[in-house]
Amino acid sequence: MEKLLVRGGNRLEGEIHISGAKNAALPLMIATLLTDETLTLHNMPRLADVAQLQKILGHLGVDIMIAGRRQGQSRFVGETVRYVARDIVDTTAPYDMVSKMRASFWVLGPLLARCGAAKVSLPGGCAIGTRPVDLYLKALAQMGADIDVEAGYVVASVHGGRLKGAHIVFPKVSVGATHVALMAATLAEGETVIENAAREPEVVDLANCLVKMGAVIEGIGTSTLHIQGKERLHGAEHSIVPDRIEAGTYAMAVAMTDGEVLLRDAQAETLSAFIDVMAQAGVAVTEEEKGLRVRRANGALRAVAVETQPFPGFPTDLQAQLMALMTRADGVSSIRETIFENRFMHVQELVRLGADITLMGDTALVKGVDRLIGAPVMATDLRASVSLVIAGLAAEGETEIHRLYHLDRGFEALEQKLSAVGADIERAAA
Ligand code: UD1
């Protein structure tokens, strides 16, 4: 077991390279199951979740080859990986693999679409709410799949072997259910319409790659997708979109220390709601040729009122980090979580560092304090864990963060990236 030691007080200055987005890399890797040709993905982040999904894909029969990085480039520049699902040797994704990462459940869609059958364990993932899968199952059933849930597994098959196009209206926006319905629809017979589709940049990235693979999709980036199913898709090459959540996280780390950093490759168009909230908080995030520059606009941080929403709203994946930042703002912030009902486990850990936070149902009231003081804390989920790093950067003395495996799932080389811009942060044996 390892822990992270953060000694607060240093200003962050310089440049941080933003990696490829985890939440785009995962569905893109899964999309390889839709074709027997090679899918080459550039700008792949090196993360525990990617490695875990590679294990599952390998188990299903996908050949994976790391083609390496381009010569002479920094170690934070993403890898190129080739995936070939020439023969799918198994259509079962077992519990011990899927339980470690929720997104691996998404193999259900492509397996059904390509092989006409799949048996996939119900998922695990971050404990941030009940996280049901009803929307996925209803969408696939509408496309003609017979679905049973037996002994913790979703067992699905398609009579006649090929899914049929359908008119799917999601009652609620779901990123994962949109990925799965979209991937399944590319190989279904006839047209599929998906209404109330998620518009997250990671959905757009997947859709763009599917088009390169021969899929016919209209409405990319809007909440209504029209897909004309094809009998087969072919190989393609695609570069993964930069990680907006990593960029937003480092932006808040920089603001917390009153520093100034260029977030290389970060894209403003994927972060507009976040940039607006930062402006209210007194943090300037400005576009430059090479990325986004972050610094405080004029001194103090100000309290904000925010609620999380599906894209293009303020992302739930930046909620915990914003709460950490607001512990040091002037005034009382109100942060409402509308996507996941239990995504406040970082609150008690931030309070251990001296934060003043009151929970009222789905809303946290964060009263800014003059000082945070380092203490041992526990990472509870992926994004919560990095909120403790942000708090630790401003805390007096040493903050000791335990349960690092959450962090390693989704942040590439976090302590190297932060120490390169001046943070006092190191990994140690727990
Ligand atoms: C994805 C992201 C996660 C992000 C979330 C919301 C990945 C790997 N993960 O998760 O980081 O926090 O989007 O932006 O991309 N829901 C149902 N029934 C379903 C499916 C979802 O009720 O069948 C609910 C969920 O409980 C939640 C809401 O829909 O309340 C949104 O969840 P969803 O967008 O599906 O999240 P994920 O795709 O799991």
Describe this structure in words.
This protein is of the alpha/beta class. The chain is built from 14 helices and 24 strands. The chain has helices at 22-31, 48-60, 95-98, 108-115, 134-142, 175-186, 201-212, 244-256, 272-281, 319-326, 346-352, 382-394, 405-410, 414-420, and strands spanning 2-7, 13-17, 38-44, 63-68, 79-84, 92-93, 117-121, 145-150, 153-158, 167-169, 191-195, 216-218, 224-228, 236-239, 260-264, 283-288, 291-296, 305-307, 332-336, 356-360, 363-367, 376-378, 398-402, 424-429. The longest helix is centred in the N-terminal third of the chain and has 13 residues, at 48-60. Bound molecules: uridine-diphosphate-N-acetylglucosamine (UD1). Residues 23, 26, 102-103, 129, 131-136, 172, 174-177, 202, 316-317, 339-340 line the site of uridine-diphosphate-N-acetylglucosamine.
Question: Any key phrases for this structure?
Answer:
24 strands; binds uridine-diphosphate-N-acetylglucosamine; 430 residues; alpha/beta; 27% strand; four-stranded mixed β-sheet
Largest sheet: 4 strands, mixed
Mean pLDDT: 94
Helix content: 25-40%
The kinds of small molecule bound in this structure are: uridine-diphosphate-N-acetylglucosamine
**Order of strands in the sheet with most strands:** 22-23-1-24
Distance between the amino and carboxyl termini: 5 Å
Unreliable stretches (pLDDT < 50, length at least 5) are none
Q: What is the beta-strand fraction?
A: 25-35%
* Overall number of strands: 24
Structural class: alpha/beta
**What value does the Rg take, in angstroms?**
21 Å
